[in-house]
Amino acid sequence: MKRLLNLLVVLAAALAVAGCNEPKKPEPKQQPQVVKKESTVVVPPAVKGKWKAVKIEITDKISKKSTVLTVGIGSKEKIPGSDLTIEVENFLPHFVMEGTTLTSESNDLKNPAVQMRISQGGKEIYKGWLFKLFPTIHAFQHPQYGFALVGYIPA
C-alpha cells in the first residue's frame, strides 16, 4: 500500500510539473523577401536611330471607332478628344528578354514591341509594352480605350 501511495505521489508531481510547462508554440515562418528587379532596356547600336515613330491604333470602346496615332520615339502625343497622352519610350523590332534585360536581337521586324507610358489628366496610369504579334500579353486595360501596335516608320 505504501508503494502504491508513493507511486501516486510521484505521478501527481509529474502531472503537476507537466501542467506548468505550456507547450511551445511554433514560431511563425518568415516569408522570403521577394525583391523585384527593375528591367533594363538596352537598344543595341544596330537598332538605335533606325526607327523614327510607331503607329498605335486607339479604339474607343463606346463609339466603336478607331484611329491610328503616329507617335515619334521619345515623343508624346495627346489622344484627340480625350485627356489621355501617349509617350513612346523605346521601340524594339526583335524584342527578346534575357533575364532582366529587354533588348532587340536584330533590326528585323520579328517581334516588334513598343515601350510606352499613358497619362490621364497628367497622371501616369500605365507604363509597359505593346506587342504587335501578341496584342493581349500585358495589354493595358482602360474602360474606354483599347491600344494596339499596328505599324512602324523607319528613320
Automatic annotation (TrEMBL):
<protein>
    <submittedName>
        <fullName>DUF2155 domain-containing protein</fullName>
    </submittedName>
</protein>
<feature type="signal peptide">
    <location>
        <begin position="1"/>
        <end position="18"/>
    </location>
</feature>
<keyword id="KW-0732">Signal</keyword>
